[in-house]
Amino acid sequence: MQYQYDLFVIGAGSGGVRASRVAASKGFKVGVAEASALGGTCVNIGCVPKKLFVYGSEYGHVAEQAQGYGWQFAKPSFDWATLRDNKTKEIERLNGIYKNLLENPGVTIHQGYGKLVDAHTVQVGEELITAERILIAVGAQPFVPEFPGSEHALVSDDMFYLDELPESILVVGGGYIAVEFAGICNGLGVSTTLMYRGDKLLRGFDEDVREFATQEFNKAGIDVQLNSDVAAIEMDGKQKRVTLKNGRELVVDQVLYATGRVPKTAELNLEAVGVKTNSKGAIEVDHNYKSTVESVYAIGDVTDKVQLTPVAIKEAMALIGYWFDQKECAMDYDNIPTAVFCQPPIGTVGLTEQEADDRGFDIDVYQTDFRAMKHTLSGAQERSFMKLIVDRGTDRVLGAHMVGDYAGEIIQGLGIAIKAGATKAHFDSTVGVHPTSAEEFVTFSAAALKKR
Ligand SMILES: Cc1cc2nc3c(=O)[nH]c(=O)nc-3n(C[C@H](O)[C@H](O)[C@H](O)COP(=O)(O)OP(=O)(O)OC[C@H]3O[C@@H](n4cnc5c(N)ncnc54)[C@H](O)[C@@H]3O)c2cc1C
Ligand SMILES: NC(=O)c1ccc[n+]([C@@H]2O[C@H](COP(=O)([O-])OP(=O)(O)OC[C@H]3O[C@@H](n4cnc5c(N)ncnc54)[C@H](O)[C@@H]3O)[C@@H](O)[C@H]2O)c1
């Protein structure tokens, strides 16, 4: 049977763009459907604009902290429209780059919403398109639980285009997006409350990291409220009156819900075609990202494995190896380094202390917290935290965790060391870069052993 395309991709985000352009450059005839802007969540309403906002929010402290270094500035003021619109211009520039990335190797872009018709046919608008293989890379969307007034809550998508910066905000949730946006808002001068229903933020992270980071958020001026949840939101003039489950009330300008993201599969007609999804709507795939229909594949957030851009990209590359070199996909989901761009940021790779215990390792834990040299003169009370988990039997470093300036940058290098199987002896024999915070990772002595 003749198909129009060798590969048709639904979704031009992190995973979809990589798979399309590399497949096209290797000789496949490729088409891609994109319902919104090219580049997907990461480029348009995720990693990139978020990081620009993080940078923007850090400048607020500069004038105050620079005084200890001899600088005097006039009282700083902040213009939200400038940050928002400069960010948008940069994103539009990136959209153009993504268009070239796709078109240069010959990918045909179909602007519109794609859905499956059968195992080899996709409908985009009125057009029916046939392909030998179909790749679904449609990502995920914010999940907001239903409760009275939940329609008054913003989600992260909205934060990138607000007409006005609120004077006060309640951020609900305890994961990546909640802590990152709480930091951004707080840094931009918004009175910020971060509310989480559990007793600790950042589930899944090392317990000491969770506690330390929360202390730092509080110190930075975020009002962290744990064991609290929202019962209802009502409009009160232009403001929002939030009633908590314990009966307490809060009046704020905006409420942001950051309570997870769910796969965008509801309208893809998957069931009719035989593509199985799990209870969360994620497409079920085998190790080669093949769904329950032989010709239909899925990668990235829509499979709900690890919702990170570099993971979606690596999955795309594994699939390319499978299609072009007949190599089984063997994506390694262990030791994925990750950073949370809260303030101070968190960097982490490998096992947490709790995971190492649960897996039966006999471990040594080295940890320290300190005031970074920069802040001895800046006057800021911020502290940094570092931790290494070491297997006593083999001396291998099983995990590295950090809260503090540049944690994301530092953890990338440690990710290589841990992936390569480095031991504590390798860390110890590495010469430190002085004076840095990072050198603490190679100077841990017995004095830093945690009493367990
Ligand atoms: C606020 C925020 C901050 C984040 N920060 C980071 C970070 O710092 N680092 C990190 O690694 N990850 C971060 N992420 C996660 C990261 O953005 C995702 O893991 C990544 O984008 C997933 O890539 P993907 O290809 O699976 O999907 P996406 O990038 O979401 O791409 C899916 C694309 O498909 C399109 N689409 C959906 N349905 C259809 C359809 N039916 N037809 C046509 N097109 C369709 C969408 O419009 C979208 O463009 C962040 C996410 C958010 C929300
Ligand atoms: N820096 C980064 O790499 C980065 C940044 C942002 C997002 N991401 C990715 O995007 C994913 C989604 O981010 P996220 O923060 O939305 O999700 P998340 O899964 O990290 O956190 C969701 C939070 O909401 C809470 N929650 C869930 N349901 C709730 C409810 N009904 N009421 C109250 N709280 C509830 C959860 O307990 C959790 O704390 C992340 O897991 C991450 O993989 C990565």
From TrEMBL:
Belongs to the class-I pyridine nucleotide-disulfide oxidoreductase family. The lineage of its organism: Bacteria, Pseudomonadati, Pseudomonadota, Gammaproteobacteria, Lysobacterales. Its EC number is 1.8.1.7. Its cofactor is FAD. This is Glutathione-disulfide reductase. It comes from Rhodanobacter aciditrophus. SUPFAM superfamilies: FAD/NAD(P)-binding domain (SSF51905), FAD/NAD-linked reductases, dimerisation (C-terminal) domain (SSF55424). Residues 336-443 form the Pyridine nucleotide-disulphide oxidoreductase dimerisation domain. It comes from the Bacteria. GO terms for molecular function: glutathione-disulfide reductase (NADPH) activity. Keywords: Disulfide bond, FAD, Flavoprotein, Oxidoreductase, Redox-active center. Residues 5-316 form the FAD/NAD(P)-binding domain. PANTHER family: GLUTATHIONE REDUCTASE (PTHR42737:SF2).
